[in-house]
TrEMBL record:
Organism per entry: Bradyrhizobium stylosanthis
Keyword Nucleotide-binding: no
Residues passing through the membrane, by range: none
Designated name of the protein: NitT/TauT family transport system substrate-binding protein
Stretches assigned to the SsuA/THI5-like domain: 37-249
A Pfam family this chain is assigned to: NMT1
Protein keywords: Signal
Coiled-coil ranges (or none): none
Domain of life from the UniProt record: Bacteria
Signal peptide: 1-22
Length: 330
């Protein structure tokens, strides 16, 4: 009897000594300091969605989409969450990067100011002062917005500065509006002042253009196809879970980064992001399933207004792939 127990113990000890397969360490670099739009990544990590796919996720804040794209191109980050048109500009110049999923399929670009100023349509911009950041993505598309809405440069004044200067101009009353993202700058203004902001969205005036998505180094994708599929599967599930629990998703940001903002504006910012996930063509699809037409239209707009090299129009599909996304229901 003692021999049997001893043998069983040895067998159990041998079994226990076999290590579980280690999770793959993955670094995701964001486009900027954390704000509400980033909630799904933190929620997916907190809820174990990435771990369930065998991924040990590290989320790093970024310093702009261009800098994050450079980090991914150099393989100092495995994946990036960036403005896809910004990634296109780098890719056409030779950066080995590709979008493995486009999350924001409707543009968040807006002209926004305090709600109590009652600036709610393009006509209301006449006679006002608009704060811009020269050469950023919104300023490049701004002339198209003016063209679509019949406004002229002479209809309003502009003041220029960096991102923080632009915010301060509106907060301090030096400008009536600024060009910003509906879920980002509007929440920063509200955090600083407690006052509501009203955005005039470019997308409401026929500017159909993608925005943020996941990118990876093209060589990394080829060498790690299974990992890329697992990462995109987890990220898709994380977005779907966060959509159902916006406040809990926003709270996961603060749980990971207590100085990451205020729960009310993080939640509101994320809730403003959710409608940007889909277009009329993708409303019944899972997140990230961008259409070829949407990407082609975005490339064409970027060539005409955003400084993208005209050769980009020859093959819009070179910038993105849906091949690593989970199938419906999986």
């Amino acid at each position: 009897m003692r021999k049997w127990i001893g043998a069983a113990s040895v067998a159990l000890m041998a079994f226990a000594a076999v290590p579980a397969q280690a999770a793959d360490k993955v670094v995701l670099m964001l486009n900027w300091y954390v704000y509400g739009e980033h909630a799904p990544f933190y929620y997916g990590k907190a809820k174990g969605i990435y771990a369930a796919e065998g991924i040990d996720l590290e989320i790093q804040e970024g310093r702009g989409s261009a800098a994050t794209t450079q980090a991914v191109a150099a393989k100092t980050a495995d994946f990036g969450y960036v403005d896809v048109p910004t990634m296109m500009r780098a890719a056409i110049k030779g950066a080995p990067v590709v979008a493995t999923g486009v999350l924001l399929q409707t543009s968040p670009m807006s002209a926004m100011g305090f709600a109590d100023k009652n600036i709610k349509k393009p006509e209301d911009i006449k006679g006002k002062t608009v704060a811009i950041t020269p050469a950023d993505s919104m300023t490049q598309i701004w002339p198209l917005f003016l063209k679509k809405t019949g406004l002229k440069e002479s209809d309003f004044q502009t003041v220029a500065g960096d991102g923080q200067t632009k915010l301060n101009a509106v907060i301090n009353g030096q400008a009536d509006l600024l060009l910003g993202y509906v879920m980002d700058q509007s929440m920063k203004i509200k955090d600083a002042t407690g006052k509501d902001v009203f955005p005039i969205k470019f997308a409401d005036y026929g500017i159909n253009m993608v925005s943020s998505g996941i990118i990876a180094n093209a060589d990394y994708v080829k060498a790690n196809a299974d990992l890329v599929r697992r990462f995109m599967s987890a990220t898709t599930k994380a977005v779907e879970a966060a959509e159902k629990e916006p406040k809990a998703a926003a709270q996961s940001i603060l749980d990971a980064n207590p100085k990451g903002g205020k729960i009310d504006t993080l939640t509101q910012g994320f809730e403003l992001t959710i409608p940007l996930y889909r277009t009329a063509e993708t409303k019944s699809k899972r997140p990230f399933q961008v259409t070829d037409q949407n990407m082609t239209d975005s490339v064409n707009l970027m060539v005409e207004y955003g400084g993208l090299d005209a050769k980009a129009k020859e093959n819009p599909k070179a910038f993105y792939t849906n091949d690593y996304l989970p199938k419906s229901g999986s």
